[in-house]
Sequence to fold (134 residues):
Amino acid sequence: MNLDTPVRALMTSDVLTVDKGASLSDAWTEMLNGGFRHLPVVDGGELVGMLAASDLLAEVKHLPGALRDTGFVPDDRSVGEAMSGTVVSVGVDDPVRAALEHFAGGHLHALPVVAGRRLVGIFTTADLARALLR
Fold:
């Protein structure tokens, strides 16, 4: 694989997103149904954050024991309250090398791909693995 290949050639372009005003419960359901660990958060079509499964698990940790043990996610908080507002993203024309530099830090496994502030895809470690296997 050529590390100068643009991210757009390997990204997933059909991206499930969640609105920042959505409930955490709805976001959790979307993650479970889709098998996703990360959801880009949008507001009016613009990328404003990322919601990771770990963000939802942090919410569950603060619940009383009986509720926490059920895996229940509180419905009274919005995605915007739990998401990470600091988003590391890559541009649609950035080389794969740029995404790898972020992945190599060990903390990120999914990068929103943007054109300006508009979300156009997501590039994950799974996308990278598929490209390597080709």
Remarks:
- Helices lie at 24-34, 53-61, 65-70, 79-82, 96-104, 125-133.
- The chain has a mean pLDDT of 85.
